[in-house]
């Protein structure tokens, strides 16, 4: 993003898109000042809410002995940590970039862009691994509980981070397009081939896998309805003496929340990634979109940061962890 003033002193905003065919950066005029400041306010509020909500979710899960015993908690914590980092690192500098001329240098600009891309990629991969884990669970809960060792869990949680970082290095670092510095702007561009590959490798392929896994989970649950309800007399008690379902059924209750997270993550990220794919294949200036549309799609995608903690409230274990946090606060 950048800005300029016309002869009457009226300020406009333009977005720089990389035209891989022409081999140059094209400023596309659009967004008046009111629209821009509205988007800035939205990003600021989203950063504040996302930071607060995701932080509370992490604290609630870590402080709950009941939640810590569940495998799904590791994936929730991994995904929520990514959302928290994006609220702390990415969004504040996005607001800065919209309000001021970029004066932090090209290297910091590149680091900021790469951080944004890396965290977005890891988010998708964490959701993929979470769905693989849930499918393994619903296929054979007894074998899952018996064979899922600590080392295997750690590898499944760490793998998305390692793979995401590797993909960013291969596509975004090696595929970087070098260009003259643009004073006052943070600009990062990819070579045509890498720009075409990026949205497919980092979003569309994981999205197809998530859709397939979601379908497989739902079909398995429908075909095995006896897994939905625990047998009579199987309730246990948590650390506060409250009735609690046994471990397998507490894991099983997470499936609805996982499917909700799948749907909203894919739906909210889809428009922005489609726009990126279209722009990567664009061969003429005429196919460039209006400058406000990619920004709106970007805001739609990052809104998942603030929605993520609310979606997990549909899971009984997370609600219980939240309630215990607020009960402890009220007692003090």
UniProtKB/TrEMBL annotation:
<dbReference type="GO" id="GO:0007198">
    <property type="term" value="P:adenylate cyclase-inhibiting serotonin receptor signaling pathway"/>
</dbReference>
<keyword id="KW-0472">Membrane</keyword>
<dbReference type="GO" id="GO:0030425">
    <property type="term" value="C:dendrite"/>
</dbReference>
<dbReference type="InterPro" id="IPR017452">
    <property type="entry name" value="GPCR_Rhodpsn_7TM"/>
</dbReference>
<dbReference type="Pfam" id="PF00001">
    <property type="entry name" value="7tm_1"/>
</dbReference>
<dbReference type="GO" id="GO:0045202">
    <property type="term" value="C:synapse"/>
</dbReference>
<dbReference type="InterPro" id="IPR000276">
    <property type="entry name" value="GPCR_Rhodpsn"/>
</dbReference>
<keyword id="KW-0675">Receptor</keyword>
<dbReference type="GO" id="GO:0005886">
    <property type="term" value="C:plasma membrane"/>
</dbReference>
<keyword id="KW-0807">Transducer</keyword>
<feature type="transmembrane region" description="Helical">
    <location>
        <begin position="296"/>
        <end position="315"/>
    </location>
</feature>
<feature type="transmembrane region" description="Helical">
    <location>
        <begin position="254"/>
        <end position="272"/>
    </location>
</feature>
<keyword id="KW-0812">Transmembrane</keyword>
<protein>
    <submittedName>
        <fullName>Dopamine receptor 1-like</fullName>
    </submittedName>
</protein>
<dbReference type="GO" id="GO:0007187">
    <property type="term" value="P:G protein-coupled receptor signaling pathway, coupled to cyclic nucleotide second messenger"/>
</dbReference>
<keyword id="KW-1003">Cell membrane</keyword>
<feature type="transmembrane region" description="Helical">
    <location>
        <begin position="70"/>
        <end position="91"/>
    </location>
</feature>
<keyword id="KW-0297">G-protein coupled receptor</keyword>
<feature type="transmembrane region" description="Helical">
    <location>
        <begin position="150"/>
        <end position="173"/>
    </location>
</feature>
<feature type="transmembrane region" description="Helical">
    <location>
        <begin position="40"/>
        <end position="63"/>
    </location>
</feature>
<feature type="transmembrane region" description="Helical">
    <location>
        <begin position="200"/>
        <end position="223"/>
    </location>
</feature>
<dbReference type="GO" id="GO:0004993">
    <property type="term" value="F:G protein-coupled serotonin receptor activity"/>
</dbReference>
<dbReference type="GO" id="GO:0051378">
    <property type="term" value="F:serotonin binding"/>
</dbReference>
<keyword id="KW-1133">Transmembrane helix</keyword>
<feature type="domain" description="G-protein coupled receptors family 1 profile">
    <location>
        <begin position="53"/>
        <end position="312"/>
    </location>
</feature>
<dbReference type="GO" id="GO:0030594">
    <property type="term" value="F:neurotransmitter receptor activity"/>
</dbReference>
<dbReference type="GO" id="GO:0007268">
    <property type="term" value="P:chemical synaptic transmission"/>
</dbReference>
<feature type="transmembrane region" description="Helical">
    <location>
        <begin position="111"/>
        <end position="130"/>
    </location>
</feature>
């Amino acid at each position: 993003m950048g800005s300029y003033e016309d002869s009457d002193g009226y300020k406009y905003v333009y977005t720089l898109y990389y035209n891989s065919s022409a081999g140059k950066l094209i400023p596309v005029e659009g967004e008046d000042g009111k629209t821009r400041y509205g988007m800035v306010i939205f990003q600021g509020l989203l950063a504040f809410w996302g930071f607060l909500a995701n932080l509370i979710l992490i604290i609630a899960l870590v402080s709950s002995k009941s939640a810590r015993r569940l495998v799904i908690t590791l994936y929730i914590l991994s995904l929520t940590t990514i959302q928290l980092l994006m609220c702390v690192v990415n969004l504040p500098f996005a607001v800065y970039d919209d309000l001021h001329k970029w004066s932090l240098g090209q290297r910091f600009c590149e680091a900021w862009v790469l951080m944004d891309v890396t965290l977005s990629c890891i988010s998708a991969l964490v959701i993929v691994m979470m769905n693989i884990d849930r499918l393994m669970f619903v296929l054979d809960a007894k074998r899952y509980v018996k064979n899922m060792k600590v080392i295997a869990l750690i590898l499944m949680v760490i793998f998305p981070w390692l793979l995401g970082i590797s993909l960013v290095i291969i596509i975004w670092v090696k595929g970087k397009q070098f260009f003259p510095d643009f004073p006052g702007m943070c600009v990062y561009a990819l070579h045509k081939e890498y720009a075409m590959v990026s949205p497919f490798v980092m979003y569309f392929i994981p999205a197809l896998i998530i859709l397939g896994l979601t379908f497989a989970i739902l079909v398995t649950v429908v075909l095995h309805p006896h897994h939905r309800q625990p047998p009579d007399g199987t309730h246990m008690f948590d650390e506060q003496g409250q009735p609690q379902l046994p471990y397998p059924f507490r894991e099983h209750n997470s499936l609805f929340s996982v499917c909700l997270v799948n749907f909203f993550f894919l739906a909210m990220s889809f428009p922005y990634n489609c726009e990126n794919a279209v722009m990567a294949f664009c061969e003429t200036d005429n196919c460039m979109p209006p400058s406000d549309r990619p920004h709106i799609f970007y805001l739609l995608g990052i809104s998942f940061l603030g929605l993520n903690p609310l979606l997990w409230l549909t899971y009984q274990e997370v609600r219980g962890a939240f309630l215990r946090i607020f009960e402890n606060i009220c007692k003090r």
